[in-house]
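Chapter review: from sequence to fold.
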Amino acid sequence: MKLFFRRYGDKGSQPLIVLHGLFGISDNWVTFGRRIADEGFDVIIPDQRNHGVSPHSDVFNYLALTDDLMEMIEEEDILYPLMLGHSMGGKVAMRFALEYPEMVKRLIVVDISMKAYGDRPHHRNIIEAMQSIDLSKMKSRSKIEMQLKDRVKELRIRQFLMKNLHWRDKDTLEWRINLNGIAKNLNQMFDAIQTEVTYHKPTLFIRGGQSDYILPEDYPTIRSNFPMAEIITIEGASHWVHAEAAEQFYLLSSGFLTGKPGWHQE
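The token string follows.
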């Protein structure tokens, strides 16, 4: 599948691929991408399938997402990229690095582990809340957000979801995201990564201290597949650690990717 992507920096620089999470889009990472491009990176931020401007499909699993990433890398002649992925994007990045360890130079995984997570009612609630809104009767973004508020109480998550909304024409709002395709395959987004392959290159896991996506009991499994893994907690941050602690997250990420001395103390 040919993915839409945003690109910042010089194409001759070290490539860095940034992968958004479930319900996300490339636009979520533009501020980060532009800033880190100034440090000498060629930053590529795709919309993954069923998200943003990229094509929709009823096939939605990690095998397909990993294949999409490989297709983009081959078509764009991207050599030895660094990878950074959040949540679903982190699992895609991990799977890719374990399938093609010779290709990925360094890896950052943001608040996701190797384990299976089981069904998460919160995600189903989000999909149902978005599907329940009759967009044909909505003439403003604010009215849609008010309807979302009934089921999605957290302001930050509502704002995050609203980025999926766009004007199809001057009178019609629609969701870019393929809600039906994701709903049909949601359980597959919680699958574990099970392999004995190891990735022996520098790896950084960044977790939110208020999140349960990576717990201390997950560390041994992570390190069995990623023996060079550094696992760093940003205290006070939730699953959206990169948004809630943006500056600390940036300093850790850029320090790790550039090899800045003492980066882990940022």
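Two observations follow directly from the output. The chain has a mean pLDDT of 95. The chain has two domains: 5-116+194-265, 121-184.
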